[in-house]
Amino acid sequence: MSAGDTAWLLVSAALVLLMVPGLALFYGGMVRVKSTLNMLMMSFICLAVVTLVWVLYGYSLAFGPDAGGGLIGTLKFAGMAGIGPQSLTGSVPTLVFAGFQLMFAIITAALLSGAIADRAKFGTWVAFVVIWVTVVYAPIAHWVFTAHGWIAAHLHILDLAGGTVVEINSGSAGLALALVLGPRLGFRSDPMRPHSMPLVVLGAGLLWFGWFGFNAGSALAANGSAGVAFFNTQVAGAAAVAGWLLVERIRDGKATTLGAASGAVAGLVAITPSCGSVNPLGAMLIGVIAGVVCGYTVGLKHRLGYDDSLDVAGVHGVGGFVGTVLIGLLATASVTGGPRGLLFGGGAGLLGRQALAAVTVAAYSFTLTWVIATVLTKTVGFRVDRDEEHGGLDLAVHGETAYDLVPHVVGGGGRTAGQHQPGRIPAAQG
């Protein structure tokens, strides 16, 4: 056991956990006031639900001994059986590794909620998360993150931190969910603007901060690979902000705060698979491309009529695909220690394998998610009724509101806060 590697992975796991409330604030600020708490809860509940699934059998299915064909693990470690303080995975305790991977599973499930904001039944969402982590996330994690998984063993792709497992997976699943549940009431007619840009920016900042643990922690050691991933993460996020804002400036004439926050996330998504494969200039190029491509892609939902509410497919799916495939062009031997991309004399083999893995994961995730969501829709129901959706999910589902907008009595004179004499402008507004 390496004390340094163990300490770094513990910190990284905590950083990835911080991304979940960061995502909740990011998503919560992007929806309308009436469903803010529901959006926060859809992310927050994943902390509890996925943890229980992971301990009972999720970790074993993802990282247990292969059951055959590199498709899924066995239940040898169900209930974390046989794993104690002395058990090691590489140079770190197995429970530390399992905890780090747990945070990946949590944030991936939480990401899906953005695709169906404002219209999903909370109880059905909880059931969906349990099923989805079991039959979609765990198998894909086994394929990519374990040495005996079929993608790792046969395609030999480069994906340090989960561009396939987390990003392409969540984007494809989010698109399937959006199509099954259908568009929100008022989609393409009501503005549906973010109700709190400060929350969006705060959430994006926490995501960016946590992403250093997400990417650099995936080196599973406190070493040079972690340093490269850390630096590339910052570079790609910054470059993507510039790329997205350039798109807005050309297309709309204005560079928006929402665009800056979304661009940062797009760049961080794209560098997730490639942070351990490219040099800093490659990371910069990946970030710019992701910012431009994702910036244009998110507008397609209005033209094509699918309501991916908070652009899970447009940012995570597309950004993850960009970052995964561009490894085949931009990977450098000085970073990877061997494999090279097409532009560095490595041939087209790596590019083809990266693309095949990306397409395969997308197809599996979309198909299985479509089936799960359809079955839940036809049995217990996945979408709230029209009156609840129109009035907002906070009161209908949770019996509370994000903000106390009812005026309070001030003093004993019968006047309430915010009241003023007719015809007069309150001093605060004057």
Low-confidence stretches: 409-430
Helical percent range?
55-70%
Tell me the number of strands: 2
Strand content: under 5%
Shape: globular
* Oligomeric state of the chains in view: single chain
Spatial arrangement of strands, main beta sheet: 1-2
Secondary-structure content class = mainly alpha
Order of helices and strands: HHEEHHHHHHHHHHHHHH
End-to-end separation: 65 Å
Number of helices: 16
Question: Average pLDDT value?
Answer: 94
Q: How would a textbook summarize the main sheet?
A: 2 strands, antiparallel
Report the radius of gyration as a whole number of Å. 22 Å
Describe this structure in words.
With 430 residues, the protein is an all-alpha fold. 65% of the residues lie in helices and 1% in strands. It has 16 helices and two strands. It has a two-stranded antiparallel sheet with strand order 1-2. The termini are far apart. 54% of the residues are buried.
Describe the structure concisely for a colleague.
With 430 residues, the protein is mainly α. 65% of the residues lie in helices and 1% in strands.
Outline the fold blueprint.
Elements: H1 3-30, H2 36-63, E1 88-89, E2 92-93, H3 94-112, H4 122-145, H5 150-155, H6 163-181, H7 197-216, H8 224-252, H9 257-274, H10 280-297, H11 300-304, H12 312-330, H13 333-336, H14 349-379, H15 386-391, H16 393-398
Antiparallel strand pairs: 1-2
Helix pairs in contact: 1-2, 1-3, 1-7, 2-3, 2-4, 3-6, 4-6, 4-14, 6-12, 6-14, 7-8, 7-9, 8-9, 8-10, 9-10, 9-12, 10-12, 12-14
